[in-house]
Every structure is written in C-alpha cells, then in structure tokens.
UniProtKB/TrEMBL annotation:
Region listing for Disordered, in residue ranges: 1-107
Lineage: Eukaryota, Fungi, Dikarya, Ascomycota, Pezizomycotina
Residues annotated as domain PD-(D/E)XK nuclease-like: 176-412
Record field: compositional bias (Polar residues): 1-10
Composition-biased stretches (Basic residues): 12-23
Protein name as annotated: PD-(D/E)XK nuclease-like domain-containing protein
Organism per entry: Stereocaulon virgatum
Length: 423
C-alpha cells in the first residue's frame, strides 16, 4: 500500500506553500497607501468586496483566480533583464535599511496642534481679543460687531418677535436687546422659518446621535446657503460642500523640517466669491502662465472652485469630538490657502487676516489666520452662536452675515485690486 499523504502535502511529498500576503506596490516598491499625502485624514479604510479573498479572487464564472505576487522589493531589481545577477541577501538588507526612512513614508502625520511647530513655516496659536484683533486687521476688523452678535445684540428682526415667542416657552423668550429694526418683512419671515427649521434639525441630530454627514446636510449646509445666497448679494456669493476637495498641487501642503509633507487635510464647506465676467477674465489672464495642474485660484484643483476664490472655510465636527483635530485641519488647509495667494501676489503686498469657522455640533466658532514673515498665526476662538437654542441659531445666521458682508465688500475689492491682473 502507498503511504498515506499527510494533510497539506503535494503529490511529491512537499508541503504546499501559502502565497505570501502583500500590499500592492509601486515601481519603487513603496506601498501605495504610504505614498498618499492624506494618510492621516480621518477616513475609514475601504473594505474589499466579499468575493476577494486573501488567497485569490473568485470571478463571475466561479473560477478561482489567484492574485499574482508583486515583484520583489529591493534596489537593483531589473525585471526586464533576466540575465542580471540576483543580489545577495546582505545587499538587499543594506539597501533596504538605507532607503527605509526616506521611502516608506512620504507624509509626516500631524496628530496634535503643536506638531505644526515643526513645519518649515510653522503655525502658532494666539488668543483672540480686542488687542490682537486690532493688531491683526483683515476680517478681525469686524471683531466688535461679532462680539456684539455673540452677546445677542440685534440678531432677530423686530417683525419676528411674535413668531419667536409663539415657538418658545415664556421663560426662553430672548431679551429685548436681541431685536433689531429691519425693512423687509417678507424676507424676515423666510429667515425665521429657516432658522427655526435648522434649530429643530440640530436638536434631532443630537438626540439621534447621527453621523457628521447628517449634521452637514441638515444643519450646516442649509445655514450657509441661507446667508451666502441672500438676495442682497445679487448672486455674488455662494456656499459649497467641499468634503472631497484636497490640497492640490501637493507642493502647497505644509512641509516638515525633515522635508516630508505634513498631510493634505480637508475641510467641509467653503463660502466663496462668484466672479462676474470681468473678474473671470482677469482670473484667466492671471493663471495663464501656471502649469495645468496649478491653474486654480485656490489651494485645490476641485473643479467648481478653480475660478471662485474661497473667502471663508468651514470645518465641522460632531458634538464633543475631542482633540485638536478641527484646529489642525483648519490650520493645514488655511496654510495652503495663504501659500497659494502668496504665489499670485507681489512680494511687497500683505495678505489680509483670513477667517475660518469651526463647527462642533451645535457650536460655531471663528478663528482667523494671518501670514507673518516666517510663520502663520492662528487667532481664536470666538464663539458666534449655538444651534441648541433658537436665539443661538439666529446669532449664527447674523454672525455669518457679518462675515459674508466683509467677504463681498472688503475682501473682494482687495482681491480684485491686488491678486488678479487684467490683460
């Protein structure tokens, strides 16, 4: 009788070898995930479809098709030259050790705000108050108006007093200083309906513990559209969800002192200037000499924004989300934005201090970014309002109106005069 084969042996008695598991590699032998400058962006790793297995994949016809092994990873490997001598084990070890630090990671993760101190152009933090606002200028010229809004002064049209009191318990009625005289009752009623809906949606989002994308669609996006698309701007301003817009080109991303990029953080919304015909022609003329991959007025090649200068960027987070994540994402994104404006601006011109918003669940805060000689400064935070109350939601809408007024008047005039050029 023939000896019984042991489990896992081939007909020749040799033990079957399991295919090694490899991540896909590039021609340089670096894992594709490590080459992505966005490896530290908070995104879920996509899972393979159920038909893909570690030992191969099953096709639609049910045939098991093994996944081919990637080429070996070492310096000197030449797949097109079969006669070339194979490197020794020692040469593979020494070459891989010498290149491991430079090739295996192209991005330096930013996990804490203090990590930004290690950038070639670091970002530092400074508290926001009357003294720093006066010194910084730019959007912080609106500081006193925003402080008044944050204290609840003049944020509700007088024509909505009955409407507000009908929707609130008497003990929650806003103080009289919250009301301001306006001259458009129809517009006021539309504002009241929308603000009430946003407030109610925010309460539902918190109660149900929904995901950030739901907060964005039910609370944040309607609020920014309500203000940016106000008839008084005559179509000159707009808002957009930009969660898919990455920092491009990569050269705009912050660089670590070691030479590695510090990641391409994204934000959630942009309030931007819609160019008229003259402004659009000047933008085309300004960008005519740039490389194709850089022909955008912003720090991204996201199609809808290439010709529309961003005035206010917004990062959103769930309620009580911890850490410095929102500050880091905003600082990284705004740093790239300042760098892009600097590329288009004469060296002698100064960039005005620029606004950004941080929305943590209900609460909305202002931060501001200023380019200085050797670093960027982040000023913050100033609370503008909170959607957990009807009064707080009116405060957010009014604060946004103050900021969009600044963008449409002051920033647009500066941008048209200093950044873009006519043919």
């Amino acid at each position: 009788m023939s000896p019984q084969k042991k489990s896992g042996q081939t007909p020749h008695g040799k033990r079957r070898q399991s295919p090694r598991k490899h991540l896909p590699t590039t021609s340089q032998g670096v894992r594709e995930h490590d080459q992505d400058e966005d490896e530290d962006v908070d995104e879920k790793t996509p899972k393979p479809p159920a038909s893909v297995h570690s030992r191969g994949r099953t096709t639609e016809l049910g045939i098991h098709d093994p996944v081919p092994l990637p080429p070996p990873i070492y310096k000197g490997y030449r797949p097109d030259n079969a006669s070339a001598a194979s490197p020794t084990r020692s040469s593979v070890t020494s070459s891989s050790q010498s290149e491991s630090l430079s090739n295996t990671r192209s991005v330096s993760p930013v996990k804490q705000f203090v990590d930004l101190d290690m950038a070639e152009r670091p970002t530092t933090f400074e508290g926001l108050n009357g003294h720093t606002a006066e010194k910084a200028g730019g959007v912080l010229g609106c500081y006193e108006d925003l402080v008044a809004v944050g204290r609840g002064f003049g944020v509700i049209p007088c024509s909505l007093k009955s409407f507000v009191e009908q929707n609130l318990h008497k003990s929650d009625w806003p103080p009289m200083h919250a009301y301001a005289t306006t001259d458009d009752a129809d517009r006021d009623r539309h504002l009241g309906d929308e603000v009430l809906r946003i407030h109610q949606n925010a309460e539902k989002c918190e109660k149900k513990g929904v995901a950030e994308v739901v907060w964005n669609s039910k609370v944040h996006e309607p609020l920014y559209e309500l203000v940016a698309e106000h008839p008084k701007y005559k179509g000159a301003m707009g808002s957009m969800n930009i969660t898919t817009a990455r920092i491009q080109p990569k050269s705009l991303a912050m660089t670590h002192v070691s030479g590695m990029k510090m990641g391409s953080k994204m934000v959630d919304f942009a309030i931007y200037m819609k160019p008229d015909k003259e402004m659009k022609n000047n933008i085309r003329y300004t960008l005519r000499g740039d490389l194709k991959e850089s022909q955008s007025v912003n720090q991204t090649m996201h199609g809808p924004l290439r010709m529309c200068p961003i005035a206010i960027s917004v990062e959103t987070k769930l309620p009580f989300s911890g850490g410095d994540t929102a500050d880091i994402q905003s600082a990284t994104w705004m740093g790239a934005g300042l760098a892009r404006i600097r590329q288009m601006l004469p060296e002698s011109e100064k960039i005005p201090t620029m606004p950004a918003l941080l929305a943590h669940g209900h609460q909305l805060h202002l931060v501001a970014f200023q380019e200085q000689d050797d670093n960027n400064v982040m000023y913050g935070r100033l609370q503008l309002g909170s959607s957990d109350t009807l009064l707080g939601t009116f405060q957010m809408a009014k604060a946004l109106e103050v900021l969009v007024d600044w963008a449409n008047m002051d920033y647009r005039a500066w941008y048209f005069d200093k950044v873009i050029r006519s043919g």
